[in-house]
Design goal:
Elements lengths: L1 E8 L7 H13 L7 E3 L15 H23 L2 E10 L2 E9 L5 E6 L6 H4 L17 E3 L2 E7 L6 H9 L4 E5 L7 H15 L2 E5 L1 E2 L11 E3 L5 E4 L5 E6 L8 E3 L6 E3 H6 L25 E5 L11 H9 L4 E8 L5 E3 L20 H4 L18 E2 H7 L5 E6 L10 H13 L6 E5 L1 H10 L5 E3 L10 H7 L4 E5 L5 H9 L3 E5 L4 H10 L3 E4 L2 H17 L1
Parallel strand pairs: 1-2, 1-10, 2-3, 7-8, 8-9, 16-17, 16-25, 17-20, 20-21, 21-22, 22-23, 23-24, 24-25
Antiparallel strand pairs: 1-13, 3-4, 4-5, 6-7, 9-11, 11-12, 14-15, 17-18, 18-19
């Protein structure tokens, strides 16, 4: 793949800004079919520091020509073009990188996440979207995953780490960074490539032939090696990077097997100890110690099952896991409810999957349990992820109307994609039967799986079935379990859940047998049993 960063001359005097825009348009017009990817610098339609109030008027006068030049370059060269400019939106003008595919169609916008104070305060650029959760943008074009960094974004290492977590193939860096020393820019972009595991294509603005700041359009390999460097030279920086999906492999510590550098970084992360809100962030499923207590449908002896109050109560008391059930609505939304029908847990009737979300939201899911909870609405999966991200491991029971039907692949993928979107992939596993496991293995094999008990004749063979479906866990229940089954599972590296125990005497016995996770409706009482078991165990 041949990539191109266009470095344009920075207009130190705003009266020269039009000349810089014309320079960029000429460069775009002279691109040829040898190029596969073209990137422009930040604020390509306003390449100067304008007095207050003049930035947007200049942008408005020069945007159409520049956008048309970018679109034409994409079509003429059959290349992907990323234009970074101040773009008009229904919400105001935004610092934007817009991607055009090789047919010249706009396929996605990235809005700069971190704006310097002067952008909204002096120049009137909108930053309202930065005040709520936004995962780092990934735009996939023609099989390539593009991530984005615009200027000031480059300084926020936690953002860069999250971008790397999303696995881009190429990170497009559009920048001014007029006061940053060239050596610092090289260092920052080498680190950006190394930590995201992606190629970096950077387009900047030249500050003058003898300058030692700004400029420095770059192409960097995932290993951190600089493949091309424009210095302060304006015009096209062209480099053939080969396979854009190439990743840097390294040894897994000294003498270990070769793995992706991104995986080497991710496997040892302990965000609960240092991220903002770290005290709320629990270790993920792979790190959380055993034994555990899982609040089955939440702490549902004190609040309605599968409700935010029930999960919130359990989490606030220290629950390592919460369990909930997901059904698909008629319009494809994952919602949490145990039964196939509405009658037992709401004032509605009929099957969940035959109702739209809007219809379900008209129902009361609280007063059937207790008048104090009157008015509770059905909970969407997204509500759970928003309320409790990384605060407990999620035992997700995906419900299927029939074990014989081919289960919806798009529904499972939607759930898996939402785990990634809310940074909860390390804090979840699917607990379900073969029809859903088959779908999960096909579309989201990276989500850990737990084998449900299944048909009567197979309940005592749950460990063997877990091996068949490549599950990390099994979920046993009375009376279909014994010591040999638990021992056999542990010999195979499979963890044992038990569904469910609300009696302290039974819970103690199960823990002695080696059950790893106890599901319970009565969280607090069973949590005390587990705590005492751990104290007694550790005393010896």
């Amino acid at each position: 793949m041949k990539v191109c960063a266009i470095q344009l001359p920075y207009a130190h005097d705003p009266r020269d800004a039009e000349s810089s825009v014309n320079f960029l348009i000429r460069e775009l017009d002279s691109c040829d079919e040898s190029l596969d990817l073209i990137l422009t610098p930040e604020y390509s339609n306003t390449p100067s520091e304008f007095p207050a109030g003049e930035n947007l008027s200049f942008a408005e006068a020069h945007t159409a020509r520049l956008v048309e030049a970018a679109r034409n370059a994409a079509k003429r060269c059959k290349a992907i073009v990323a234009l970074s400019f101040c773009a008009p939106t229904p919400h105001g003008w935004r610092n934007t990188t817009r991607v055009f595919d090789s047919a010249g169609e706009a396929v996605g916008d990235y809005y700069k996440q971190h704006l310097v104070l002067s952008e909204p305060a002096v120049h009137g650029v909108d930053n309202s979207y930065t005040r709520s959760f936004r995962q780092p943008e990934i735009i996939e074009v023609e099989g390539i995953r593009f991530g984005f960094v615009i200027c000031y974004d480059a300084y926020f290492e936690e953002y860069i780490e999250y971008l790397g977590y999303r696995r881009p193939d190429i990170v497009l860096v559009s920048a001014f960074q007029r006061g940053e020393p060239c050596e610092n820019l090289r260092l920052m972009n080498r680190a950006l490539a190394y930590h995201t595991g992606a190629f970096v294509l950077r387009a900047g603005v030249g500050m003058g032939e003898n300058a030692n700041v700004g400029g420095t359009s770059l192409v960097v390999a995932p290993s951190g090696e600089i493949l091309a460097d424009a210095g302060e030279k304006n015009g096209k920086l062209v480099c053939d990077i080969g396979d854009p999906k190439q990743k840097y492999m390294r040894s897994n510590s000294f003498g270990g097997k070769m793995i992706l550098n991104r995986d080497f970084i991710e496997q040892g992360r302990t965000p609960w100890s240092y991220r903002v809100g770290g005290s709320c962030v629990k270790p993920g499923d792979a790190e959380m110690p055993y034994p555990r207590v899982c609040a089955h449908r939440g702490f549902n002896t004190i609040a309605p099952e599968n409700s935010l109050p029930a999960w919130g109560a359990a989490i606030s008391l220290g629950a390592e896991e919460i369990e909930f059930d997901l059904w698909e609505t008629a319009d494809g939304v994952p919602v949490s409810i145990h039964d196939e029908t509405l009658d037992r847990v709401s004032n509605g009737h009929g099957k969940v999957r035959e109702k739209t979300l809007a219809e379900l939201e008209q129902l009361d899911f609280g007063s059937v349990r207790d008048p104090h909870f009157a008015g509770l609405k059905i909970v969407k999966f997204e509500d759970i992820l928003r309320a409790f991200p990384r605060q407990a491991v999620m035992n997700i029971h995906i419900k299927s109307p029939s074990s014989k039907e081919r289960f919806s692949r798009p529904f499972v993928k939607k759930i898996a994609d939402m785990l990634i979107e809310y940074d909860c992939a390390s804090h979840a596993y699917f607990m379900t039967g073969p029809s859903v496991l088959e779908a999960a293995l096909e579309v989201a094999p990276w989500v850990p799986r737990c084998m449900a008990s299944g048909p009567f004749e197979q309940k005592m063979f749950i460990v063997e079935r877990a091996v068949e479906w490549q599950c990390r866990k099994v979920q046993m229940f009375t009376p279909y379990y014994n010591q040999s089954m638990i021992d056999r599972a542990h010999d195979l590296g499979i963890r044992c859940n038990f569904f469910y125990s609300d009696r302290p005497e039974e819970a103690r016995e199960l823990l002695k047998m080696g059950v790893d996770t106890l599901l319970t409706n009565d969280y607090w009482n069973i949590a005390q049993v587990k705590a005492q078991f751990v104290r007694d165990r550790d005393r010896f």
